[in-house]
Amino acid sequence: MLQITSARDHKISGNGKRSSDRAIRVFLADDHPVVRRGLSLVIDEQDDMEVIGEAEDGMAAVECIARLRPDVALMDIDMPILSGIEATKRISESNPEVAVLILTAYDREDLLFQALQAGAAGYALKVTNAEDLLAAVRTVNSGEVCISPVMATKLVGDYLKRSKNPDDPDTYRKLSSREREVLPLLAEGHTHHTIAELLHVSPYTVQTYRQRIMRKLDLHSGTELLRYALKKGLVSLET
């Protein structure tokens, strides 16, 4: 796992000791019982970890974590009722002392950015072996950010590619004032319906704005749109 020092404060227990002086309290959020069972078996075998609760959907995870206050939450992305990313955002706002480690099958950069922006402390893939996953849990519990090597490689490769072919600095000027307003909302992962409510327009109008933005900036995916917005400073990653 790639470890990145974060500004996240180290967790302190009531007696002034670091949380690493006791067993790491882990919460599991995944809609597949078999996955939760497997993770629970692996984690409970560790002397320095214990599973204190589980949830099968994002909303239940938010509610249980608010009550149980675990040290680390292993969070799937694709869950019913509330997605793992939205659940992470709510958890980071209401319980910032909980380190959320995304554990997903999706090796997509746009989801990585969204997860980090929502407040996740790490991003691991479900193909990760048990030893590396346990190391990731310990890393985020210590107050650092941990990213799967596969995802880190993707990010570095993309950066090198784009550094050789920088964006036209004048492309942003092609956007209308309304399109400039819509761009960061799209980059932050808001749905067309949510943006429509914020701007008091129809979802169809938002879709039209998106199409125009993509065409004017010569972007071809949501990932490229997010990268563009990050490069322009229209959105930021907060960890």
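^ that was protein a. below is b, sequence first then the tokens
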Amino acid sequence: MVGINPDDYVAISSFKAHPYYKPFILLIPDNWSYESFYNVRMDDMIDIIDNALKKGFTVAWAADVSEKYFSWKNGVAFVPENEKEIDSMTAEQRATLFNEPKPEAKITEEIRQAAYDDYSTTDDHGMHIVGLAKDQNGKEYYIVKNSWGESNDYKGYIYVTKEYVKYKTISLLLHKKALPKNIKSKLRIK
């Protein structure tokens, strides 16, 4: 129906609780068929996305979009230095949250795993990573196509920082040819 060969695609995830470079069953409600995902290190996940985009491939992205710092209206998602402060912000402070680049938290594999384990990262939504962009300070963002129409500031696209992707990604789906050679070798994918 869609003109692709499913065998050409690979599902990737990144969770410290599972052995790296091996398949595992991702325990999320949307994985009702108990499909296996290859587990890679968090930084490898970013390298995979970057490599895919540089080679002209796009990436299907399953992620948590329920965070207050994921703004569909403003077309931006990032991880504030102290995300807990958002709840104590005034309305005026919240109004300026997305008006310019802000300092961002540095996400580690431990932080990522803890958010999945305590359900603060959940399997919410699938989108499409289609490109890279830089802000006025040189920080890279992924250009993400969403399916919610064109009602936001960027006509259906959202700019997502790499830290947000590290933190809130559930899984990726991409063509095997988009994988970096070293990671493809570690996963034993031909």
